Amino acid sequence: MENLEIVQQFIQIFWGIKDKKRLQMDTNLSDLGFYGDDKLEFVQKFFNDFDIDFSDFEEDKFIEPEKGFLSPINLIKRIFSSKKEDEVKEIKIKDLVLALENKKWINNLK
Q1: Contact yes or no for 1/62 (Cβ under 8 A)
Q2: What is the pTM of this model?
Q3: In terms of domain of life, where is this protein from (predicted)?
Q4: pLDDT 10s per residue in the chain (110 long)?
Q5: Is 99 exposed, middle or buried (0-12, 13-18, 19+ CB in 10 A)?
Q6: Distance (Å, rounded) from C-alpha 50 to C-alpha 99?
Q7: Structural domain boundaries of the chain?
């Protein structure tokens, strides 16, 4: 099985997405409805299940804050953060395929 197929199958099982045509190399996780804590839970499971080194994964660069209720701590973080929500970088399926091939997260922030 090719790495793309492995990632597609993982997403299909994790999120219950039946239409494999939606899961192409350039598809963003946010295009599939992955945001905030759900996206974080997904990538953590992906990294752990496939034993991928994610020491270079900068969570705050790729995972947007949860929408809706803000705890006092998150409200303070949002007020004093210099990073805007639209600065969050997308995680594409090809990023996951690359991580699977290399057994390491490859930072695409350049």
Answers
A1: no
A2: 0.81
A3: Bacteria
A4: 799 999 999 999 999 998 989 999 999 999 998 989 999 999 999 999 999 999 999 998 999 887 665 566 666 665 666 555 457 899 999 999 999 999 999 986 54
A5: buried
A6: 9
A7: 3-102
